[in-house]
Fold this sequence. Notes:
Layout: E1 3-8, H1 12-21, E2 34-40, E3 57-58, H2 61-66, E4 72-75, H3 83-92, E5 96-99, H4 102-119, E6 123-124, H5 136-142, E7 147-154, H6 157-169, H7 173-182, H8 191-194, H9 197-211, E8 221-222, H10 230-239, E9 241-250, E10 259-270, E11 282-290, E12 293-300, H11 304-325, E13 344-345, E14 352-361, H12 367-377, E15 382-391, E16 394-401, E17 404-405, H13 406-417, E18 422-431
Parallel strand pairs: 1-2, 1-4, 2-3, 4-5, 5-6, 8-10, 10-13, 10-18
Antiparallel strand pairs: 7-9, 7-11, 9-10, 11-12, 14-16, 14-17, 14-18, 15-16
Helix pairs in contact: 1-11, 3-4, 4-9, 6-7, 12-13
The structure holds L-homoserine (HSE).
Amino acid sequence: xxxxxxxxxxxxxxxxxxxxxxxxxxxxxxxxxxxxxxxxxxxxxxxxxxxxxxxxxxxxxxxxxxxxxxxxxxxxxxxxxxxxxxxxxxxxxxxxxxxxxxxxxxxxxxxxxxxxxxxxxxxxxxxxxxxxxxxxxxxxxxxxxxxxxxxxxxxxxxxxxxxxxxxxxxxxxxxxxxxxxxxxxxxxxxxxxxxxxxxxxxxxxxxxxxxxxxxxxxxxxxxxxxxxxxxxxxxxxxxxxxxxxxxxxxxxxxxxxxxxxxxxxxxxxxxxxxxxxxxxxxxxxxxxxxxxxxxxxxxxxxxxxxxxxxxxxxxxxxxxxxxxxxxxxxxxxxxxxxxxxxxxxxxxxxxxxxxxxxxxxxxxxxxxxxxxxxxxxxxxxxxxxxxxxxxxxxxxxxxxxxxxxxxxxxxxxxxxxxxxxxxxxxxxxxxx
Length: 432
Ligand code: HSE
């Protein structure tokens, strides 16, 4: 039985997807049952790496999602609109959807899954998080017997590349970003990556799957890497840490009513932690659950081939289900979205974490004492205080705290900012 695909978008991932489907030899035999029926693109004039018979490519994207012959719409346009509307339109036409669009799913997953469940179709998104790393299906299926306690990921390759280069070259953020843009590793507009928004979209999706509830994208606390300096990377190194942009979803592994921590921020990670050695554009996701313990998924988080590998695996999954059980047997609950409630999120002020803070101070007697007193007055217990050197006339003091309530830490900092001896607090980072 042959299944017809409507492909929306023929950019990097769309091209990679078409190349796999058009070259099935040596891959799973299911691929031989899949044909590309229509390809919706914005322009017919662009040079393409894959060629289709006349009539397959069209600029009429709605004609693709409305085509009665198409079984599965593969949305690889990116961006919010028209992607969201086309996905909803495809669902209303009872077509299954495969998408790599984390921005749409993180913001409109609720609307899209309600519609998909009503229409009895699948919306699969393995390619939306971690590129070629299988992480969505493992969370839905392979790890389903566990109570998940945390999902911690390096899930943005651009920022991991930048931080890795800053670490190995001792260079500052701006320099490395410019170089990464020249090499094509960072977008001309790097906002979504460097400000942590892309990672926030992805952790919202992973949290929803791991913790079995819907997540509001705006509930993800998000800080990017623009303020990370070469000085912090050096101090972190001396203290036994590397700095990584982590996306963190943490529960307590208990009941569905538990509150979740959901946050993306640059983080000091001990050099002995498994995530510390994930470098360059690679991604990794560390999942912890009960009774599983820890499992780490590692691999290429972007790129044509790896992302297309994930897209095509979703297409094959749907085709396998349609072939084995027919279209009218109800949705497989391990592959569809069955959550009805939204997860409760812990406000950032209430989370408990360790902090690293760097202070520039006058080199006066008693400064470290004043710092210690201000922290102590707000129940912020210090793990270490070091005066590493000077910047001009000013002493540079680095503090690492024990696990403390973020609200207390911030209140202490407000007080410290007003101390006469404190010239500046150039960086505040969390420690894993
Ligand atoms: N821009 C993303 C990254 C890749 O840098 O990881 C696509 O999700």
